[in-house]
Amino acid sequence: MTVFRARRKGQIAVELPPYAAGLLASLVRQLVELLSDGEAQATGSSDPLEAMLEFSAPRDSPQDPALLRLLPDARPDDPEASAEFRRFTERALREAKVADALAVLDKLGDPHDEAGPADLEFELTSVQARAWMRCITDLRLTLAERLGITADDAELWDALAPDDDRMPIYEIYGWLSYLLESLIDAVQR
């Protein structure tokens, strides 16, 4: 099973079976794609003020509910204030989330390149561990939104029939929850 263990000097030892590394890498690549899709492109303007203010930045909330969960409105009760806030922050937030995801992919490499069934083993610095926690949280939020999971419906999900089409995704959501909890425990030691 996947293991995060605290090491000396704030390092976290990671051991991932090949199937877990492959699944995580696939999910992270999909997250990068979700965050990159529809992102406004930089204008390429040479005006430093225009570049700083990002006049081309998005003002509308994302239409995809999962993306909206990752990039929420700052003031849901005030669409104009939310639009202004989004204009100045969304690009940086997307870039930060993609950077976290790329930090995960950097450590995972391409799990399919490895010969044989050996576990993938490496260490994370405290900075990398925080990026991993943020990325796994983003993955969990995305799946929760896709499945419709809320804080009040644990009984519904616990009673989900094994042949329900949502079960495989719900099990991945549970696995990501385990990963996050395991990593947090290792960081706190």
Number of strands: 3
Strand content: 5-15%
Low-confidence stretches: none
Rg to the nearest angstrom?
Answer: 19 Å
The ordered string of helix (H) and strand (E) elements is EEHHHHEHHH
How far is the first residue's CA from the last residue's CA?
Answer: 20 Å
**Main β-sheet: number of strands, strand sense, barrel status?**
3 strands, antiparallel
Q: By helix and strand content, what is the structural category?
A: mainly alpha
Apparent shape: globular
Quickly count the domains.
Answer: 1
Task: Give the overall pLDDT as a whole number.
Answer: 87
Order of strands in the sheet with the most strands?
1-2-3
Q: What share of the residues lie within helices?
A: 55-70%
SS element count, helices: 7
